[in-house]
Amino acid sequence: MGSQEGSSAITIGVLALQGAFNEHVQLLREAAQILATKDIIQRTWTFKEIRNKPELDSCDALIIPGGESTAISLVAQRCNMLEPLRDFVKVIRKPTWGTCAGLILLAEAANATKKGGQELIGGLDVRVNRNHFGRQIESFQADLNLPFLQQADGKDFDTSQKPFRAIFIRAPIVEKVLPHVSGAQTGQASLDETVTAPSRTIDENVAKGIKLADVEIMATLPGRAAAVQDDKKEKLDAEAGDIIAVRQANVFGTSFHPELTGDPRIHVWWLEQVSEAVDRRRALAAETAES
Amino acid sequence: MATELPTRTTNGERMPLNAAGEDNFTVKTGLARMLKGGVIMDVVNAEQARIAEEAGAVAVMALERVPADIRAEGGVSRMSDPKMIREIMATVTIPVMAKARIGHFVECQILEAIGVDYIDESEVLTPADHAHHVEKHPFSVPFVCGCRNLGEALRRISEGAAMIRTKGEAGTGDVVEAVRHMRTVSAEINAASRMSDMELRVLAKEIQAPYDLLKETAKLGRLPVVNFAAGGVATPADAALMMQLGCDGVFVGSGIFKSGDASKRAKAIVQAVTHYNDPKVLAEVSEDLGEAMVGLNVASMDAKDKMQGRGW
């Protein structure tokens, strides 16, 4: 869709209904420059702001930025973007990354939502807790070790040598990883004050080769679980701690803001993931066309 | 693009530390960045706050009286009752801002103790200090301040404001002053961008702004923090006008709850700020909104009745 089959061009959209979308565009540009120096295949990257369905349809992958999740969700609903977004993430399963508010929107279940609940897109079988650490005066920065960066990109990306300085602004966390179910998380819907995303069936024709595996925990925040208020503690998985980055198939979510750091390492890593996913999708599409 | 706000936050060459000894300016400006492309609405009670949240506001500003009423009723206007602010905080999940009087650092301490997400050191309330603004860096809670020109904006950022807004003329429903302030700031930045370092030193003296911050601003081609429009925005078209002039988002004060159908107008202004460059969407959302707030023509007001002159 949009970009030509077999070409090396990839279009990345950043949902621009509200929030810090421009910061992502800036870091994507930086990341693409880094990739140009290390990649064997030269890509032509296009980064664009997405506000309507035709713009979304032209994308190979999408970032849902930080902002106010209630505002993004309501604006999406009123300009008829919620269903196209659900199709993008859950039916044709194109790679998507959500940061902070974006993670909330990509969760299949969420707590501490506004009165009357809020619409979710879904795509990650997790339950998030909004504003987990409290209000703005509880917002903070922390040094993170992100092993997935080093595995993929080697020494320069080793966060045990050079930690990733992450920024948490009224941040959510993943408070529970849910078992993958086909259909909506109905077990979660019966809980008080928890909202769930509606179920969508994956389109096997266009999303071939994408296996809906379980959720992988990509990063946790050490030493913070103890600081959680007592009444919330019992709701947390004992073994989980504070989960701040997760991935399920090609949907990725972080509760912090890599786009506010000026550190493009996660963006480089994500573009590489997208690059592989797009190649696979195009190869499979070409095979189908031949047979 | 020269008009992008860089992802790394800088405050000139200085990054002052807070009381806990850490530089938290990145965290303070971070929340302002999350509000970009959104609408912050004035509300006077929990019920209005819910209407604002349902309309898609990114934050609410809790205050006792909207500026139009402050203007009509007169008297000294102060920080709101903490009880009212707490009720609003308990009702909505979006950030809650509150106003303190210019220079009244104890009102700011109280608002920080309640846990509001942002403090507006605002000319809409009666100033409490004839010469000083609040030293904002030592606080953990971030501040937004109004400005009419570049010098005023940079003085506020230097004091620690993590977000700037135009002053406009609050409570009038007349957008002309917000436009004037935004155009003034932009024109001054454009001029500064073409100056040599020596010329910037002279300009810094003239506009009473710190040289480091002025140089940073000239280099960026925009203010180094998030900049919203405020003061007189009453319609979706007003909001989109301010966005097209380069604002990062919009405050709407009296414009919503002094109009005929507050909920519908609030939703329309939210859509207008997202789709500010799409006249078709703007036409759709501008339809059938009922009565706009009556409005006061700023051109026929006496200087003494204007709030924008407050602040130093």
From TrEMBL, chain A:
One of its GO terms (biological process) is pyridoxine metabolic process. It holds the Pfam family SNO. The keyword Transferase applies. It catalyses: L-glutamine + H2O = L-glutamate + NH4(+). The keyword Transferase applies. It is an enzyme of class 3 (hydrolase). HAMAP family: PdxT. PANTHER family: PYRIDOXAL 5'-PHOSPHATE SYNTHASE SUBUNIT SNO, PYRIDOXAL 5'-PHOSPHATE SYNTHASE SUBUNIT SNO1-RELATED. This is glutaminase.
Automatic annotation (TrEMBL), chain B:
It catalyses: aldehydo-D-ribose 5-phosphate + D-glyceraldehyde 3-phosphate + L-glutamine = pyridoxal 5'-phosphate + L-glutamate + phosphate + 3 H2O + H(+). It is an enzyme of class 4 (lyase). The active site is at K99. D-glyceraldehyde 3-phosphate binds at R183. One of its GO terms (biological process) is pyridoxal phosphate biosynthetic process. Its EC number is 4.3.3.6. Pathway: Cofactor biosynthesis; pyridoxal 5'-phosphate biosynthesis. It holds the Pfam family SOR_SNZ. Residues 25-230 form the PdxS/SNZ N-terminal domain. It comes from the Eukaryota. Transmembrane segments: none annotated. The keyword Lyase applies. Keywords: Lyase, Pyridoxal phosphate, Schiff base. D-ribose 5-phosphate binds at D42, G171, G232, G253, S254. One of its GO terms (molecular function) is pyridoxal 5'-phosphate synthase (glutamine hydrolysing) activity. Catalyzes the formation of pyridoxal 5'-phosphate from ribose 5-phosphate (RBP), glyceraldehyde 3-phosphate (G3P) and ammonia. The ammonia is provided by PDX2. Can also use ribulose 5-phosphate and dihydroxyacetone phosphate as substrates, resulting from enzyme-catalyzed isomerization of RBP and G3P, respectively. Also plays an indirect role in resistance to singlet oxygen-generating photosensitizers. Belongs to the PdxS/SNZ family. NCBIfam families: PRK04180.1, pyridoxal 5'-phosphate synthase lyase subunit PdxS. This is pyridoxal 5'-phosphate synthase (glutamine hydrolyzing). It comes from Glarea lozoyensis (strain ATCC 74030 / MF5533). The lineage of its organism: Eukaryota, Fungi, Dikarya, Ascomycota, Pezizomycotina.
